[in-house]
What we know:
Blueprint: H1 3-24, H2 32-47, H3 52-56, H4 62-69, H5 71-79, H6 90-101, E1 121-123, E2 140-143, E3 152-155, E4 157-159, H7 169-182, E5 186-187, H8 195-198, E6 204-208, H9 224-231, E7 236-242, E8 254-255, H10 262-268, E9 276-277, H11 288-301, E10 307-311, H12 316-329, E11 335-339, H13 350-355, H14 360-373, E12 381-385, H15 391-400, E13 404-407, H16 409-415, H17 437-440, H18 445-469, E14 483-488, E15 491-494, H19 495-498
Parallel strand pairs: 4-13, 5-6, 6-7, 7-10, 10-11, 11-12, 12-13
Antiparallel strand pairs: 1-14, 2-3, 8-9, 14-15
Amino acid sequence: MNVRRIFIAASIMVLIAIGAGAYFWLPVLWSLLIIGPLIIMGLTDILQNKHTIKKNFPLIGRLRYVLESIRPEIMQYFVETDTEGRPINRQYRSLIYQRSKKTNDTVPFGTQMNVYSVGYEWMDHSMYAKGEKEINDKPRINVGGPDCKQPYFASLLNISAMSFGSLSKNAIMALNKGAKKGRFAHNTGEGSISPYHLKYGGDLIWQIGTGYFGCRNDEGDFDAENFAQKALLKNVKMVEIKLSQGAKPGHGGILPASKNTEEIALIRGVKPHTSVHSPPSHSAFSDADGLMNFIQLLREKCEGKPIGFKLCVGKKQEFIDLCKAMISSGIKPDFISVDGGEGGTGAAPVEFSNSLGMPLRDAVAFVYDTLVGYDLKKDITIIASGKVFSGFHIARILALGADMVSSARAMMMAVGCIQALKCNDNHCPVGVATQNAALMKGLDVDNKAKRVTNFHDETLRSCSELAGAAGITNLVDLERKHINRRVSMNAVLKYDEIFPYTKTGSLLN
């Protein structure tokens, strides 16, 4: 006798018993409050045809869906070790929380890393390490090439692109207030500049995506005059043209309908309560020369503020073509933001997230070497983003050739993200990646802003201390020879062996 027959027979017997018992014992009727709904649920399971497991195992089969719904929490809190979690392990999550709260961020009893496993990396320290008074724990860099009239003196660590719409207004305000207090930059993401980006006066990097949100006409094409109105705002320090992003290169951004409120639609210039898909490529240009001309147009409209572009490296030849176009046109970006294929904070198709885009370290080394080979690097700042959580992560990417870094997920965690993996369905339980007013009201802007500033300051301090331990007083002096990587059980290579330097101007001929 199968489960369904047993359930039906048991249900009939229970109903008969309750009916008979009710005549002699009235309290039995109260049992219907519990048993009745269960019987109805079970019969519903048997009669439906959508889920086989529920049809074959009424009531019991529902446990499968309950357990599946809480699987991420079970894995995160009870199964994963401190170093195994994905996409960000517990060790780094705890580090971000501790530094954002300025609590004890030291570890007891030695490293949990397997230092003999392939892929383990470390820096060489010096017997002549530099002390606290000899190092700069708040380094800055000047962004702006020869054609830039308003260069920006930037922090080495900034907030990477995350749009209002993807994040809640409370999260945006906390990030911007933290950036203002810590004197670092806040990238708007492609969702345009909202009132929440402007409320506290933090420095902004305005990102222009393929949807041209905030600077588009009624047909969705780029509007130069609309762009100029916002680009000339005092808060806007730099403008970034987004060609592609690490989470979904070649796909374009996605704003789910559940997050596209009337307020967000007004800011972006789109229809509310609809899913908004940015085009996969720009309509304002279609080749390398077109991009250079677009850069020049934006530079003129924003009166010489730093103009650059962001990309996740794909076809290497296309980036080489950009370098050749810079030389032939004489137009150069002031900066290039390199996003690793491991990046991403919101919604992305699985195939695009997992299987497209060059990883960050390979990409930064390639971009740096190509710019050097065409003798362009001296005029262009490289910004790197993609899983930057610790001082070592910053030092490692600076050694490869980046001049500064930006972080998205670490800043989200400083604001309160618990990696609930609900960014794409508007149910973020801590009010960071949602437009649900009931969820976002628990995110206190003032408190979280302090944590954003703390994380920025403490992480840069840690990075500077690492450099000091290596005998380096200035982070810009980090080189590939300072980073080691185990490539087998008994072989270790330095980064300058894995990523050999290119000679300046060697690609010109």
